[in-house]
Design brief:
This protein is an alpha+beta fold. It is built from eight helices and 23 strands. The protein is globular.
Length: 516
């Protein structure tokens, strides 16, 4: 593709260009399984599963070993069993891991039975990985009595331990939905850091690969990945703060696209994603759907790659508590891009599930951040893209979706809200429920903002950011119970966990109701 014209120094251009270089050449020969014998395990980054269908699932690992050189194509054997002791093997396959994709394996398995638990392990160089557990989805028309889903977001390594995942593991969830900020592109250690990142900001492919390796070394994160399948989307910090399409706060065009290419490649290498998500330079098809019988359909949305630049910048920015300028309301501005909007409309129109979930990065509810006269919008959330949001709400209404629920993160706090038919008209009918999950470790604290928000925004039913945490949702045919879970500290791996609130959404009655 052709890049826009931009101005930068030769030194900076070379730095950005380095982001797209692939480490390692095409391997000269494929090794046989018997040709490589490693002295230590190459599975230090763990294993994972994702994107279950009624016939299969994606199984992932990434080898990390100083004993593996770049010219090797390493055979990785995969076994899938119907029992936890791996005695009843139902599928065996061999996959070659190469330096081109950071020795990652994305095994897209088919031919399994629906709604079944399976166990799996990888073998490479004579070393075996831990055993992971996953399960396939029910058939699209199959009756499903219940499903427990956990929602996670925003996990900054140096801020604290990922102890929330330890408690999530004990919750025995069927699926994890991650709504973004899996890594952070910068370190802000400071004297309050619990553990050291030890690296500078990420720009190159090597930088991003190393950052994922650091985060994936966390034992609680590894254990949660090995316990059940995940669905993934990103927000901004997988690339850089508040980036929007081909723009950031300081740059646009080629520098952003080159950095994005490095970040997207590393993201794919480290996640249990389908082959359809394999990136092509700075482009990647991340949006995807998953169906769980007649009970639940989940639409994973990408709200970063295709969005219009942030509004109210430069001369239009009044310096207030949020954006409020004419360009904000331009009908041509988008957050999903035309292709993804059409894909979502088709998914929703054809849905026969009891519950329809839209999972994505930032809050969708209309929130006025100015307690005085007038309004002020947070430009990076859906309030910064009001026309794009209204198109999504129009689609939900036109498709007559029975029970739409929006899931997101980003703000390092729980927020529970009702979504109105016309977003900024709170007298219009409520058509959907929104649950914003807290952060795993990323900063927050203090009540004042949410007390102020609730006073001026009656559609916001609850806000809480005093501790870190996660969300669980129990889906049944009659209702969804949302449990807002927090850990008392992220500075200790022995932290306790509590529920700070519980909400219910009843079938056919849009809008959350607080239970406790």
């Amino acid at each position: 593709m052709s890049f826009p014209v931009f101005t930068t120094s030769r030194r900076d251009f070379l730095r950005y260009a380095a982001a797209t270089l692939v480490i390692g050449a095409t391997p000269s020969r494929l090794l046989k399984a018997s040709e490589l014998r490693l002295r230590s395990s190459p599975f230090a980054l763990g294993i994972a599963s994702g994107y279950p269908t009624s016939e299969g699932v994606v199984l992932w690992t990434r080898l990390l070993s100083a004993e593996i050189s770049n010219e090797m194509a390493v055979p990785v054997e995969l076994e899938i069993a119907g029992d936890e002791h791996m005695r009843s093997i139902v599928n065996r396959s061999t996959h070659h891991a190469t330096a081109e994709w950071a020795y990652s394996v994305h095994a897209e398995i088919e031919g399994l039975k629906p709604a079944r638990d399976y166990w799996y392990r990888f073998t490479a160089g004579g070393m075996q990985s831990p055993i992971g557990k996953t399960h396939t989805a029910p058939r699209p028309n199959q009756r499903v009595d219940s499903l427990r889903v956990a929602v996670a977001s925003c996990q900054k390594y140096e801020n604290g331990y990922f102890v929330a995942y330890r408690h999530m593991l004990r919750d025995n969830v069927d699926l994890v939905v991650h709504t973004g900020d899996y890594i952070y592109e910068y370190e802000s250690a400071g004297r309050d850091a619990v553990r050291k990142d030890g690296s500078s900001e990420t720009y190159t492919l090597a930088d991003y690969r190393a950052r994922y390796a650091l985060y994936k070394s966390d034992p609680d994160l590894q254990a949660m990945h090995a316990a059940c399948p995940w669905l993934m989307t990103w927000d901004d910090h997988e690339v850089t703060n508040d980036y929007a399409g081909e723009t950031t706060y300081g740059e646009s065009g080629a520098p952003v696209l080159l950095r994005r290419a490095a970040a997207y490649r590393a993201y794919y290498e480290n996640m249990p994603l389908r082959r359809s998500a394999m990136p092509d330079g700075p482009h990647m098809q991340l949006h995807a759907g998953a169906t769980f019988g007649r009970l639940l359909e989940i639409n994973m949305l990408d709200t970063r790659q295709h969005r219009s630049p942030l509004a109210c910048r430069g001369a239009e920015d009044d310096g207030g508590p949020g954006a409020r300028c004419k360009s904000l309301f331009d009908a041509a501005r988008t957050k999903l891009g035309r292709e993804q909007e059409q894909w979502l409309a088709a998914r929703l129109t054809g849905s026969k599930a009891r519950w329809s979930v839209l999972a994505q990065g930032t809050p969708m509810a209309h929130v006025d951040n100015d307690p005085g006269e007038g309004v002020a919008y947070r430009r990076d959330s859906w309030d910064g893209y009001p026309a794009a949001r209204q198109r999504v709400l129009d689609t939900l209404s036109a498709a007559r979706i029975r029970n739409p629920i929006v899931l997101d993160g980003d703000i390092h706090a729980f927020q529970v809200a009702s979504l109105n038919r016309t977003a900024n008209d709170l007298t219009s009918p409520v058509i959907a429920s929104e649950f914003t999950t807290n952060s795993i470790t990323s900063g927050g604290g203090g009540r004042s903002r949410f007390e102020q928000v609730r006073q001026t925004n009656p559609n916001v039913l609850f806000g809480y950011n005093q501790e870190r945490g996660y969300l669980t949702l129990d889906f049944t045919s009659r209702e969804v119970h949302a449990n807002l879970m927090t850990v008392d500290t992220i500075r200790s791996q022995d932290a306790s966990c509590k529920r700070v609130a519980q909400f219910v959404v009843e079938d056919g009655k849009p809008g959350p109701l607080r239970l406790s």
